[in-house]
Amino acid sequence: LLGLSVDLYTNPSTVAALEACQKDGNRILALIQEKMAYLKTSRPTAVNLSNALQELEEKLQGVMSTLIGDGSLPPKESLLQAVKDYSEFMLERDVSDNQAIGKHGAEAILKVAGKSKVNLVTICNTGSLATAGYGTALGIARRLQELDALESITALETRPYNQGSRLTAFEIMEERMPGGQLICDSAAGALMQTKTVDAVVVGADRVCANGDTANKIGTYNLSIIAAFHNVPLFVAAPITSLDITLASGDQIPIEERKAEELIDTAKAPKNMPCWNPAFDVTPAKNIRGIVTEKGVIEPDQDGNIDVKAFVEMHTE
Q1: Would you place residue 188 in the very low, low, confident or very high pLDDT band (cuts 50, 70, 90)?
Q2: Which helix (H) or strand (E) holds 234?
Q3: Is 205 an active-site residue?
Q4: Cα separation of 316 and 301, whole Å?
Q5: Cβ distance 26 to 33 under 8 Å?
Q6: Residue 70: is its pLDDT beyond 70?
Q7: Among 219, 229, 161, which residue's Cα sits nearest to residue 198?
Q8: DSSP 8-state assignment for residue 130
Q9: Inter-residue contact 286 to 293 (CB < 8 Å)
Q10: Rg for the chain (alpha carbons), in Å?
Q11: 3-state DSSP assignment of residue 296
């Protein structure tokens, strides 16, 4: 949403379009809504983006109601200010929520591990480059580092777009996290077979009512490997990523990327048929806990994760 604000205020073509209809609130609203709709298509699997856009839409409709009642307010300035204010609110909330996730996650992992320092494995990028500045799964690692409780952290390269090697590895080095290392995705099993791994921490694009979790492609594979080696896997996600309208993971829309993207990154023969899903779904049975800013959702004695009950308990 910060990107939307920047576009509205600084993109020459957008600024020109807004200037052309600056006194027509309906046209300005329609232009903003068009950009919001386009932004939503960028991440169909991630529920928090669509939720945020819905909240912003409600803010904009509130502004329009005010404009109808008070024609003295300039439509363009009022609507753009509403986008800017909401974006700044989201920025502050995201950092605060991520810090709380880091705290709850660090406590949960240290408790399960039963030791003062832990060795983590993570996939994709869930740090300051993917959030407003602290991180979800990588925020848990950051909190453990602050507590001097992080022994090591291993990042999977995260094929095919290499968010792990391009982004997470960069953050690990910049933060000088202890024992930081990068491995290829297919080395995760060998790592758990031969080295000490105390927990896997991953992010989430959408968590269903039963705990099934959609995340970057390769997370499901990692969860199977972790389960085989009795390594607990924790999902880090703000409550805005919990979608209790979906009963289970088979209802999550999974984005599929163009074959050309995989061919390019894999340097495969041109015109090679490809299946290139951007996400997969980890079943709840492979998850030890879902860490939110409100606390950790843990399996009951039967192994079930009741996300719906947790959300309802913490919804104002």
Answers
A1: very high
A2: strand 233-236
A3: yes
A4: 28
A5: no
A6: no
A7: 229
A8: T
A9: no
A10: 21
A11: strand
